[in-house]
Each structure stands twice: as structure tokens, then as C-alpha cells.
């Protein structure tokens, strides 16, 4: 038996379970009201599946929007598959929960950010704690970015949540 309780890993599992439940509800009943999701994920994750041209365009991470047009949402225990529209070109992709970096529903100002172990090590080399999910709340001004830098090749994917406030 290990000497400590791994709360960080337990929280990650719980928050990814929350995402799985939300997506399962959407698969069964559709998106209610004004709800929609911005999901940023690691395209280099070994279980991520997306078209080659999307991998070339987004070699490290990608943000997808599930709002007006998506279909064939299949939610599993380890990830979900969905067909999204990219400029009138439907593309099927599979996103494992472990690849998700952020999950945001701006309609209700809800968001989760999952830090990788590498990001935590950069912040504190002496800290051996596992990654913890962090809420995306900065008065609605949190931008979707990784490692503190904006990605110039994807300006349409930086989201100011103030846009969605009423």
C-alpha cells in the first residue's frame, strides 16, 4: 500500500468522469439551451485520432467547438468520438479524456483546466504532486492557451469569455 493518498489523480479521474457524464447526456438528449463547449486537447496524445491534415495544422493542441453542428457523438469510458464540421468538410475524431487540457462551457461560465505533470514540474521542481484540475475563472477573461504563450497559427481559437456574458 502506498504511503499517501493520491488526491490529484483522484480529482483528475472525478473531473474527467464529470466530462464523460455531460457528454453522455448531450449524446442522449442534445445540447440544452445555450450550452456549448470549447474542448482543447493534446493532438500528440497516442490515442487521439484525427485527420492527417488536422494533425498537420494543429501539431500540438487543438480546440474544438461543440455547438451548432456536430453529429455521431459516441461517449465511451476512455474518451469520445464526434464528427465536426471544418469549413463544410465533416471530420470524425476521437479524443481520449486523458488528452483534454481544457473543457469550457461559456454559457454558464464553467471551465476546467488540466495541467500536465510537465507543467507542474516547471512551476516547482521540488514538488512531486500529481496534476490537479484548475477552474478557468479569471473574471471571464481566461484565454485558452498552453504554457503561457499564445499560438499565432490559431487566432480564432483564443476565446474571451466576456463575449458570452449577458
Keywords:
166 residues; alpha+beta; 5-stranded antiparallel beta sheet; 3-stranded antiparallel beta sheet; 22% helix
Describe the structure concisely.
The protein has 166 residues and is an alpha+beta fold.
Structure report:
The structure is a single chain. The protein has helices spanning 7-29, 52-57, 117-123; strands at 37-42, 61-66, 70-75, 79-85, 90-96, 100-105, 110-114, 133-135. The protein is built from 3 helices and 8 strands; from the N terminus they run H-E-H-E-E-E-E-E-E-H-E. The protein starts with 6 loop residues before the first helix and ends in a 31-residue tail after the last strand. A 5-stranded antiparallel β-sheet has the order 2-1-6-7-8. The protein has a 3-stranded antiparallel β-sheet with strand order 3-4-5.
Topology:
Layout: H1 7-29, E1 37-42, H2 52-57, E2 61-66, E3 70-75, E4 79-85, E5 90-96, E6 100-105, E7 110-114, H3 117-123, E8 133-135
Antiparallel strand pairs: 1-2, 1-6, 3-4, 4-5, 6-7, 7-8
Provide the helix percentage. 10-25%
Number of helices: 3
Rounded to the nearest angstrom, the radius of gyration is 16 Å
Task: Name the helix and strand elements from N-terminus to C-terminus, one letter apiece.
Answer: HEHEEEEEEHE
Instruction: Give the structural class.
Output: alpha+beta
pLDDT below 50 for ≥5 consecutive residues: which ranges? Answer: 119-161
Amino acid at each position: 500500500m502506498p504511503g499517501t493518498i493520491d488526491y490529484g489523480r483522484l480529482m483528475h479521474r472525478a473531473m474527467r468522469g464529470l466530462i464523460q457524464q455531460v457528454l453522455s447526456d448531450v449524446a442522449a438528449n442534445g445540447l440544452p439551451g445555450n450550452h456549448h463547449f470549447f474542448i482543447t486537447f493534446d493532438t500528440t496524445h497516442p490515442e487521439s485520432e484525427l485527420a492527417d491534415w488536422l494533425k498537420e495544422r494543429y501539431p500540438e493542441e487543438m480546440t474544438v467547438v461543440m455547438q451548432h453542428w456536430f453529429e455521431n457523438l459516441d461517449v465511451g469510458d476512455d474518451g469520445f468520438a464526434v464528427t465536426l464540421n471544418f469549413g463544410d468538410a465533416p471530420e470524425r475524431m476521437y479524443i481520449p479524456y486523458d488528452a483534454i487540457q481544457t473543457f469550457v462551457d461559456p454559457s454558464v461560465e464553467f471551465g476546467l483546466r488540466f495541467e500536465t505533470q510537465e507543467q507542474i514540474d516547471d512551476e516547482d521542481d521540488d514538488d512531486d504532486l500529481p496534476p490537479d484540475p484548475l477552474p478557468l475563472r479569471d473574471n471571464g477573461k481566461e484565454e485558452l492557451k498552453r504554457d503561457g504563450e499564445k499560438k499565432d497559427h490559431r487566432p480564432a481559437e483564443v476565446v474571451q469569455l466576456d463575449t458570452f456574458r449577458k
